[in-house]
Amino acid sequence: MILNVAAYHFTAVDNPQALAEEARARAVAAGLLGTVLVAGEGINLFLAGAGKAVRTWVDWLRAEPRFAGLVVKESYSRAQPFQRLKVKVKPELISFRRADASPLQGRAPTVAPADLARWIGQGCDDKGRRLVLLDTRNREEVGHGSFVGALTLPIDNFTELPAALVPHRDELADATVVSFCTGGIRCEKAALHLQADGMDNLLQLDGGILGYFEQVGGFGYDGRCFVFDGRVALDPALEPLVDGDEAMATG
């Protein structure tokens, strides 16, 4: 079996190029494939390979104090879902282009998966406010599945999210809004920006959809979660939509 890991961590990186080069060298030596993005604001990664090799690479990264808190989401596949290894230095880990959305300055409030599942079950938060789930992903991703009744937006790129949400802002004013995405990285930025823009009733789902699947399962969720590799999407049990030779051909 192939171990697949997804993780991100926001922290100041003084020399992204040096970190990227070492990350690449260690991944090549371990026979890992996937994508590693490095920026001055941290690291974002999707890697797959033999279990021991993947965990050794993650242990190397966590050994640096700035990455000690790295949270990794694991899943398995029969086939390697990536065709190559890509390690890049980027201006942002996820392009958003908003000066008020830097997670290096702190996080927006979060809700844990178990708490969200309880809120979904009771139809409101613990204070009795109505619950609205806000999908921050693009329309292709949403097409594979989302939380039942979630507010989805007709966007193709993450940068379009703030403008697409404007027509809905007034109707959300009396609700507790929980934003979510695949693994949490987009909400780290979107929630900060929207809060700075006056949306103080917004929380982010800690760990994203994949963290929810891992801790809670599929309660309140309809379909699968799109992932950015040859597996295409994962169901709430973290089983891939595509696996085997077909995944190798498309990853």
Automatic annotation (TrEMBL):
Residues 127-221 form the Rhodanese domain. InterPro entries: Rhodanese-like_dom, Rhodanese-like_dom_sf, TrhO, TRHO_N. PROSITE patterns: RHODANESE_3. NCBIfam families: PRK05320.1. This is Sulfurtransferase. It comes from Lysobacter zhanggongensis.
